[in-house]
Design goal:
Shape: globular
Distance between the termini: 10 Å
Structural class: alpha/beta
Helix content: 25-40%
CATH superfamily of the largest domain: Type I PLP-dependent aspartate aminotransferase-like (Major domain)
Length: about 475
């Protein structure tokens, strides 16, 4: 393997400027020196030295349909030449038609009437959902959320995100959450099947409502102090943890019995990442609110939003001015979103993603058999996980995964005569999980290439 890579003179000039002028508050330098990228296409990005990297995280699942997707790029270009901007208080065709697509789809799948409200991104849309929820529950500001859950880093969103690190310096701003264990079967009690553990977690949650002295329920008036349960159907930053299929159905029964709303955060797992438009569709429940963002515009425009049941968001209960953002429902974003829906309706994306995900998962399972440091692999569609552990196959090993990430970014691996790098994302409770979110357009040869590159990194990690 190569020595530590040194930045080119041109890159070093830029890095020196970054060190002086850029806030580090939004910066993560996974490697030193950081790479500076110059172009992208499909499943690949290239740095300023024209070194190619296969990307298996695709901007945290924001670029589900591949870098520089020609069809989506063209939708953006065409919109620039017609109606590139308009104040969000004015109507335009794209906003109305994209809202209709999402609402009609939700009616078909969940049997519920609802409306769509746009904002500029995931965290901001979480904030809007908190307003909808608080408004619908007479101002209740307490929420349930999961251990390992991530909902963003704005003040409200970080209050319902389980990592204290994200709010330590800022405190809480209205919302507070009680964090409930997620059915993380690999690290759960031994002796239970995945489904049994899911039921066990629901039973432990339901116990909070048994008496008033558990602190969340007043049996005399039949009211909970908590407004909603914020769920990522499949945990994202928490490590792409996939719960048992019975879990949300049983959890929703408890929530419905006690008048608590379910908010499904689809920001990272929406738009066919798991083989469904919304990942909650796999679990046979009706959410009360859906929050979305990221891949709606394939990363071309910051646009997100919420869908909520009619009772929660109709103009009588959530009137004009309830919340607002200057760039919400902007025509560039809605144009790309509309084209994305048209594109995914022309092809059976669900079947395609599930088939590719099965193929990728089988490759990961083969690697697991050959490398004891892989403790767990799992996947649903093209949301896949590979947990790196110590020699016992269970003890979390963050240091080894950090090493693998750095080695992947050296760009010095060779497969079939081609020199490549590999971009991986790190997640999990212990930061020891490779969270794999490749382009949904990834080809089978590219999946095989990704597996070969992963194998090379595992060999390096094992023999370092």
């Amino acid at each position: 393997m190569s020595d530590i890579r040194i930045a080119t003179a041109e890159d070093q000039v830029l890095l020196d400027k970054e060190a002086k002028y850029c806030s580090y508050g939004d910066t993560v330098h996974y490697i030193e020196p950081p790479r500076i990228f110059s172009r992208c296409e499909g499943s690949y990005v290239w740095d300023t030295e024209d070194q190619a990297y296969l990307d298996l995280q695709m901007w945290y699942s924001a670029v589900n349909f591949g870098y520089a997707n020609p069809r989506l790029n063209n939708a953006l270009k065409q919109q620039i030449d017609t109606l590139p901007q308009i104040a969000s208080q004015y109507l335009h065709k794209g906003k109305i038609e994209l809202s209709e697509m999402i609402a009609v789809d939700a009616k078909k799948k969940f049997g519920l009437d609802g409306r769509v409200h746009f904002n500029v991104g995931g965290s901001q849309s979480i904030e809007d959902s908190l307003k909808v929820v608080r408004n619908a529950t007479n101002g209740k500001s307490l929420m349930f959320a999961f251990e390992g859950g991530y909902h963003g880093r704005t003040l409200g969103a970080s209050s319902i995100t389980s990592s204290y690190r994200y709010r330590r310096r800022y405190g809480h701003f209205g919302e507070r959450a009680q964090f409930i264990p997620f059915p993380y079967h690999f690290r759960g009690p031994k002796g239970m099947t995945k489904e049994e553990y899911g039921s066990h977690c629901v039973q432990q949650f339901a116990r909070l409502f048994e008496t008033e002295y558990n602190g969340v329920w007043d049996p005399k008036v039949g009211q909970s102090e908590y407004a909603a349960f914020y769920v990522e159907p499949i945990q994202g930053t928490g490590g792409y943890v996939i719960p048992p299929m019975n879990f949300y159905r049983e959890l929703k029964q408890v929530l419905d019995q006690h008048g608590i709303l379910m908010v499904s955060d689809e920001i990272q797992m929406g738009f066919y990442r798991t083989g469904k438009l919304w990942s909650i569709e796999h679990f046979d429940v009706q959410p009360d609110v859906i929050v979305f963002g990221k891949a709606l515009t394939n990363g071309l425009n910051p646009l997100g939003g919420i869908w909520a049941r009619e009772e929660l968001i109709n103009p009588k209960v959530f009137p004009p001015g309830s919340t607002h953002s200057t760039f919400a429902s902007n025509p560039l974003g809605t144009a790309v979103g509309l084209e994305m829906f048209k594109m995914t309706n022309e092809v059976d994306y669900g079947a395609m993603v599930m088939a590719k995900g099965k193929f990728f998962l089988e490759g990961l399972q083969d690697l697991q058999k050959r490398f004891p440091i892989i403790g767990d692999v799992d996947g649903l569609g093209l949301a896949l996980r590979c947990e790196i552990c110590g020699p016992d196959g269970f003890t979390p090993d963050k240091a080894t995964l950090d090493y693998m990430v750095e080695e992947g970014m050296k760009g010095d691996m060779v497969v079939d005569g081609q020199k490549l790098g590999l971009i991986l994302d790190v997640g999990g409770y212990y930061k020891n999980v490779i969270t794999l979110a490749p382009s949904l357009e990834i080809s089978y040869p590219e999946i095989e290439l990704g597996l070969k590159l992963l194998e090379q990194l595992l060999v390096r990690a094992t023999h370092r």
